Protein: Acyl-CoA dehydrogenase C-terminal domain-containing protein
Organism: Marinomonas rhodophyticola
Amino acid sequence: MLNDDSDAETLHAVSVPFLEAMGVLCCIWQLCNTLSYQQVEGSYDASYEQNIKAMVAFYGAYRLPSAMAALKVVENAGLGLSEYEF
């Protein structure tokens, strides 16, 4: 991936948005995984399940759009950096 200095600059520019998006996506994935595991094991706690579902809904409504925007930054990062002189 790092063919020259411009690739290194692009990689550096997208590192923070990439890590932000990965953090949000991994959090949602783990919440869903926890909920699924609880249902498969049959250990049913209604308030715990309700709280996990509420957290997934919150992350889906509030944090997921910002993660998608961060991934767009990663996708399009090279557009302006290739012409910018550091």
Summary: The chain has three helices and no strands. The mean pLDDT is 82. The two ends are 20 Å apart (CA to CA). Helices lie at 5-41, 46-75, 78-81.
